[in-house]
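Re: beginner question about structure tokens

> Can someone show what the tokenized structure looks like for a real chain? I only ever see the sequence side.

Sure, here's an example I had lying around. Input first:
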Amino acid sequence: MSQPLTCDVVVVGAGMTGAASALYASRAGLDVVVVDRGPVAGGTTGAGEGNLLVSDKEPGPELDLALLSNRLWSELAQEFGEFVEYEAKGGVVVATSPGGLTALERFAAEQRAAGVVAEPVAGDALYGLEPHLAPGLPGAVHYPQDAQVMPALAAAHLLRASGARLLTGRTVTDVRRSTDGIVLGVGTDQGVIHAPAVVNAAGTWGAEVAAFAGTHLPVLPRRGFVLVTEPLPRRVHHKVYAADYVADVASDSAALQTSPVVEGTAAGPILIGASRERVGFDRSLSLPALRALAAGATRLFPFLSDVRVIRSYAGLRPYMPDHLPAIGPDPRVPGLFHACGHEGAGIGLATGTGHLIAQALTAKTPELDPAPFRPDRFPLPEEAA
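And the corresponding structure tokens:
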């Protein structure tokens, strides 16, 4: 066994949220250790598309967090944008029927009132933005604030920039606490890490880390697939998705749902999503899901019928019952902080989350109202019974 380590804060999880938490905590003057049983971005982060979105969020706490995160991502892009493939491409949300366009424009008006830049696009102007869309679509809304990063690269660069000590291949086995329940650090399969603060950034496994500390967080895995095409000249210029994607993201259904989401990448391949279903930790291939993704994408962009898919991958997104992440101190366990449960929005929301975690760790006034994200907003299982 190695000698015990000592630091100010242990971040459990080396995905994007853990990386952002480490970066902002270090910049607040704290000595940080990041620990993960796998590699950097080995979980949900590495199976994501890297979306930084405001377009799919209705006014409320998540949109407020997305707007904060969007500003912070823009600042980080000034530091190392090319290294994380930051691309301020913008999003185009397409209506497929006149009724759908009316609803989409109403939704966009509410977002504008909350600070989102949302520009209505008439049917004829739509093809100036995306020439290869299916003909006859009634219109869309353009969201210039939407952007994208390469998630695994971004997580690695945020960790490197943080200066945190990174311990990969090391499994956390328990959260150490004093006799009166105060956090003292974590135990791992390779020794103890002593710290007065632990940040649970374990993503889909956030419930497990909470349980190690003797508390409860109802994080559930929600599976999603992405198709990756052969490299192509740039033919899709924005993140493009059908308006029903917003409703699917907000759904509580455990059944398979798909809605077309299509975007080009700097490297050439086109990424095609989005599916969601609750099937536990099963990451096995689902042909029905892949077929539905392909069918939806070709309805939006008919040219994709002749394009080859070279691979697909599955990710598990950390789903919370009320669709809001848990961010901040857990009042039930002094010294425990949560930063997980972002579902499919974790890449985009990571910077705001990390910033709020650093403010909580250093007792600074939070930039957003933390109440909607309180980790103890869910009753303990015995209380709910």
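Each token stands for a local structural state, so reading them left to right follows the chain. Residues 61-80 form the longest helix (20 residues).
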